[in-house]
Design brief:
Radius of gyration: 18 Å
Distance between the termini: 22 Å
Largest sheet: 3 strands, antiparallel
Oligomer: single chain
Structural class: mainly alpha
Strand content: 5-15%
Order of helices and strands: HHHEEHHEEEHEHEHH
Low-confidence stretches: none
């Protein structure tokens, strides 16, 4: 039987392989190494796109929402050890999320960029709610440091949580579309622990049931601003130069 990794990396069956991995449910132990190899290969490609977009944004006049916070902060030397530590305390991490921590790191395209119709501190407030052109939903993916921060807060709030055998908690992977537009809102969440390959991302408006890999694929296809998919009119011309067909 041809491995998932061979089919993914060498035969180019990107979407089909992930479709089958999602169909596995909890990943069987004998397939975990193969599945994690696919997840790593996927996130290596995601990381290349993130780097490309992060380098292109300043040329378009992008100003980050938080001064001094770069659009992309790659994993550090200490990331693998921290990921192992979090799996020991939180429980098993879905392969796609774990690979994102290890390979992609922190991503935050929140900010102001009129050329892309992206507004945070500057520009008009949206007149309606998301999804739509007023909410470009800039790509934002938290790294493992944020997982540690949220886990500490979670266990301090509920002293029994870290002792519960099957405890679950919501990891805030990103702000939601409202918060990304600097309006009070919620978050995009992943339930942990999760032994599946590709976790569902909850709270993504207009994309019920979407998984992490699917969301990243959509984001890259829209130049890091997937909310433009819901716009009734044409997207900004500058966005067209950032958008590509995902290769993962």
């Amino acid at each position: 039987m041809t491995s998932f990794f061979t089919r993914y990396a060498r035969q180019g069956e990107h979407e089909q392989v992930w479709h089958e991995l999602r169909g596995l449910g909890p990943v069987p132990g004998e397939l975990r190494e193969d599945v994690e190899a696919v997840a790593t290969a996927t996130m290596e490609r995601v990381a290349r796109h993130v780097v490309r977009l992060a380098e292109a944004l300043p040329e378009l006049g992008f100003v980050p929402a938080t001064e001094g916070v770069a659009p992309h902060r790659p994993p550090t030397e200490g990331t693998p050890a921290l990921v192992r530590a979090m799996e020991e305390t939180v429980g098993v991490l879905p392969a796609a999320l774990k690979a994102s921590f290890l390979t992609v790191g922190d991503v935050s395209f929140l900010g102001d960029c009129p050329a892309l119709g992206l507004h945070y501190h500057e520009g008009p407030l949206p007149r309606t709610g998301p999804p739509g052109a007023g909410y470009p939903d800039p790509l934002d993916v938290a790294g493992v440091e944020h997982l540690r921060y949220e886990w500490v807060a979670y266990t301090e709030e509920d002293e029994e949580a870290d002792e519960a055998e099957d405890a679950e908690f919501l990891f805030s992977l990103a702000p939601d579309e409202y918060h990304k537009a600097n309006i009070s809102g919620g978050t995009h969440d992943v339930v942990l622990p999760d032994p599946r390959a590709d976790p569902e991302v909850y709270g993504v408006i207009g994309r019920k049931g979407i998984t992490l890999v699917e969301y990243l694929r959509t984001s890259i296809a829209w130049g890091g601003l997937p909310g433009w998919e819901f716009a009734p009119g044409p997207a900004p011309e500058a966005l067209g130069r950032l958008a590509v067909r995902p290769d993962f």
